[in-house]
Queue: 2 jobs
Job 1
Amino acid sequence: MTFRGSCDGEIGRKILFAKLSTMDGTTTAEQDADNVIRILVATDNHLGYGEKDAVRGEDSFTAFEEILELAVSEDVDMILLGGDLFHDAVPSQNTLHKCIELLRRYTFGDRPVSLEILSDQGQCFHNAVNQSVNYEDPNLNIAIPVFSIHGNHDDPSGFGRLSSLDLLSTSGLVNYFGRWTDLTQVEISPVLMRKGVSQLALYGLSHIHDGRLARLIKDFKVKFNCPETVANDADGNESKEEEDWFHLLVVHQNRADRGPKNYLPEDLLPSFLHLVIWGHEHDCRIEPEENAKKRFYVSQPGSSVPTSLSEGEAKKKHVGLLEIYKGKFKLKPLPLETVRPFVFESVVLNDHAEELGLAEGDASTKVFKYAKERVEAMIERAAAQHTGHPKQPTLPLIRLRLLYTDESCMFNAIRFGETFSTRVANVQDVVQFSKVVKRTKTEAVNLDKEALRRALEADNATRVEELVDRYFEEAKSNKPLKLFHSKALAEMTYRLLEQRDADAAENIVKFYKEKAVDHLLEAMPNDENIEDELLSFRARHKHGDLLKMLDAQGSKVKKEEHSISELVGSAANVPIVPATGRGAARGRGTARTRAASTAATRGKAQLNVTVSSTRTSGRQQTLLSSVMGSRNTASYVISDDSD
């Protein structure tokens, strides 16, 4: 099999676009019901959110019941959940009872399941009693199987490191997959399933703290196992041919950039994927968006119940009907009609200061009157969101955010909300005041161009860190450094660029600051002598000594981490095994596997992609490195610097 990520030239591009095309160009005969995998996709149900709220307590359960009803009416083959089924890691008895009741009511029945599982079920499904998918359990009658990963709200915790999904898995209600068991390395093995001519490789990445996941990727500790088939050519020799596997990943991580280690960049995911279902983000962006670099698509269904009164949560809530035919797919958004109406509005009061006359008289009273008029208009807009569904709540959620600079504009928000006590669902927080911080321009720092020119002309300045050191040495007569040594800044540059230590700047600045504060506290100088004392600090503490002290602190931590990591063993690849059990389309063929891996050289941080399947020779793809194996090994490089 040839990886799409390794196809070169025009032929490779044609294959790539063909694999990622939607199903619009396929004939009705081809899209026979026996060959199309139909999946209802939802994420972030947050069952139990606000369950003690007399007004909003049933919202999460109402929306989840509608999702299950849609699964039945759309006659889907399975339901796929992207994490955060529960709002709390330890859901209440009331929440568990309602969840179990709904799952039994809508997913149990005599309807045959037409999905045939090809992978090793004992490794795929966590805490399943019979080490198999629930619809192959002879003691259960499952009509619509539910597959789910865990999110950050329902992740494993407490004694035994069990998730609430483990309870549902043991009881046979949910097929819990994509769970990590070893946080020193993460191996993602797919659930392989087939319906007619369509074959699906379903990968799950349950929530891992973003900072930890960033370190795992940087240290080459994330690996994908993917299927590969070896066929015999005319001469009887083994030759690899790519099957029509549809690669679907469901993940629960930050998607929005919240800092270098606080999100999972899309570009770090392998390009052999066709579609990524992204959980955790609550704003609905369910229409598939193509990643321009990796050429897969991303769908973000969002939450089914608003858990915060933010602008993103005010978007219309949807789930998706995903249809897969061979390597093609179509995702149809299905609007949820039982979600409580929600209108969000943000107003900058300074933009209306002249209109409201805030410069004169009682500004608070004027803003109160203005806010009341805006809320009245928002309630009218919320009425337009009523769908007519008998279970949809009528009282809307209203959030008016007032951005202010002068506190004289503020009023009692709780008392304001009480005036709408019978007309809105969130009486206590209808209005939110948020202060706009005025940022003044600091004095511009002029670059010493002459010092820069001399630094660039220096014979021994061939590296970036040497240029930094040389520049500050040349410029110190005009604008000397008050705290840092020039060589400390050069070292910071070296660690950032050469060692790719993203924390280098923060660590060095923080350490210098701590040591300078300790020196000042010891000397206790007068205000006018602080600058002189800082010069004394620089003279007393050489840059080399400070960096050695900083590295000594870091080496202690690394030594402790290394001693722990030595106790952890390696995980095995996931084989494909014959399908067993009951169900309409099971028992077709067998599958065996063997896996191989290529040696990896440390370049950039990377995800490993191991290929394993029936009568196959394995191969390994790695993320963020230039891994080259034997002739039969295809490598896939994913860079964390997105170059």
Job 2
Amino acid sequence: MAMRSAVVAPAVGLSAFRHVVLPFGTSIINAQSWHLQKRCLHSSYSRTVASPHQLIMNCCFDPRVGCISTSDCFRNLISRAGCKDPGSRMAATIAGSGVEIIDDINRENSGSFVVTTPLYYVNAAPHMGSAYPTIAADALARFQRLQGRKVVFVTGTDEHGEKIAAAAAAQQRQPKDHCDIVAAEYQALWKELGISYDRFVRTTEANHEKIVAEFYQRVYDKGDIYRAQYEGLYCINCEEYKDEKDLMEGNLCPIHRKPCLARKEDNYFFALTKYQKAIEELLTSNINFVQPSFRMNEVHGWVKDGLRDFSISRAAVEWGIPVPTDPEQTIYVWFDALLGYLSALLKTGMDATVDNAAASGWPASVHIIGKDILRFHAVYWPAMLMSAGLPLPASVFGHGFLTKDGLKMGKSLGNTLEPKDLVARFGADAVRYFFLKEIEFGKDGDFSEERFINIVNANLANTIGNLLNRTLGLLKKNCNAKVPRDSSSLPEDNPIRVLAAKNVETAKRKYAEIHFSEACDALLSIASAGNLYLDERTPWSQFKLGGAAAEAAALDLTAVLEVVRIVSVGLSPVVPNLCRRIYLQLGYSEDSFNVISWKDAEWGGLIAGQVMADADPVFRKIEEAGIEGSVIANKRDVQKGRGKKVLAAVGDN
């Protein structure tokens, strides 16, 4: 394209704006291969055409820097450029850059939030190690929906590769039949756990395979793929070549504790080394790209050691997508699976192209992954996207391992904790709550059944459930089960109202930062304060006095029920079934609960005259009766009266 006084650059794959006008003398060589040059600390990506000052930005909605929408982010930039009143039409020259951003923000994806789990390997049935990040992603998705965001929650299965073919052969199945069976098991478990995903992508889907092939061709045409021989130690379980210095004695993989095999292959490679500087700039200019911060330190270490090109095809693996330029080879599992985040966004009826998928919601707001696949997501994936001319995800969050006997739980190690068993015995609410409340998301955490029971009983059955139960009992006895006063009539400076407002704000911030444990702590503290308030105010005795004392007691009951209502809104991302039951007992309909927003966590929701339901435990205590080790009666046996050792009475109906 020849140079002109102003060049309009089409925003390929960028849905936040319609076009960008660049300064005099700008030459666009290829709009799909812009190089990453510069990044705003509160942006998901910044791209330029020829100069680091020509900025195109899409906000990552990071609450810590005050941006909650794309337009807010642009207003921040515009403000720095000295534009006082941009209005709805964005037109500003960023100071010192010469870039003019023109036209209205495209509202279709404004305020959207895309969260992804890993695409899970289907070599075996799902286990707690795969349920854990999915529960976390679900809680984040539910929280963002409460904020009014247009959420796209992506999960799915990674179904190609050597390990899958071997697993299928071991079961005397064809690979596709095996994938169908295990993918269905994932979907069934997600249903049991209350996972509210929007897209479930399978990498054996035809549309996904088309997008992978086009993406490969795009990177190949860019000159970033070449053929070469490679020799090294390969971990089949990681689907990755390993450096000998990173292995345990006997060349054991430190993650799977299995020997890595010496291999020599003639494969195609991605030129990762070409993106050394770009990845360094990404990590230094966007301090929130990898979270938690200590994970960012790990990534910095890998990059500092120097990036190396990596193999993206396999000559000896038949179960995979054929390489477009060489059908004798198949595409390496990671160069296939990572594209699932993109192909999942493709809208029904659209042609399966990279640009169509990208225009349907890309980039992702956050990839939630295990720390063992951090390198692929924080280094390989951004470089691949840069090569293909696509925007980068806003962030990558690497959670820790769940351990059992001090070892990571995994199918390859044979020491898994079965989520289906936990749900059957304790219910989805208990499972979701324990793993998000008691394990700091991002760090490793160990599962103990005794601790599990103690925490769930103390927090859900006692602190929250018993508070609701006894307050409803007092309300029925003294107020005919009707709310006696508007909750808004409690003075604004009342300590419990002040505490509730403060902790709701804390919980909101912690959810946004993916600190689920701290969000739960803040909300549980409101319920604890409600119990203390009830004990101190003793409304049961005040009602007996009549007159002003009884009036005050009536307001006290209203205040405590308002506390429970607020907690039920705030905890709904973590324990949605429990919170629904609470809402119904507070006299609301199921439809009312289904449309709650975070604004409903503000004080003042209960209205005088609202009729409450009869008290009925919303979460029944897990009774330990002669427990020996981990012998627990099946939930169905308990319901039929056959639970001899332990009563696991769970309220997940």
